[in-house]
Amino acid sequence: MNPVRQTLSLSHAGAMAALAAAVSKAEEIGIPQNIVIVDTSGVFLAGIRMDGAKYLSIETATGKARFSASHNAPSGHQAFETSVTFGLATKGGTTNLPGGLPIRFDGVLVGGIGVGSGTGDQDLEVARAALSAVGADQI
User: Fold this and answer.
1) DSSP letter assigned to residue 7
2) What is the pLDDT of residue 32?
3) pLDDT for position 61
4) Which domains, from first to last, does the chain contain?
5) 129, 111 in Cβ contact below 8 A?
């Protein structure tokens, strides 16, 4: 038995590069966004509420990031009943709305990103730009 294991983690420089790329994409498409990046435990690493982004969407962006980090899967693809259960079990700490992606390098989970304030497709476009900027696996 090995009592330790090596893990990968997203550095603050990586989180900031991903955040900057997401902001740039949001500006390019003309949709101000809330963008949140968390580690594998759902702990906040970086985030922003862009000028004009819907203020309540900061909560959904955080929930999307936490969902994706916790489930190692994009948000928005679970059955409705499952989504409600996740929301209740986490006291609103996660949401299954589209716009969250896990952050992986060579298949290894290092966190999640959640984007909110646009449509689900717009949120995902911004999240994918962040993954691309840091060389994370595309989903």
Assistant:
1) -
2) 98
3) 97
4) 12-133 (3.30.450.150)
5) no
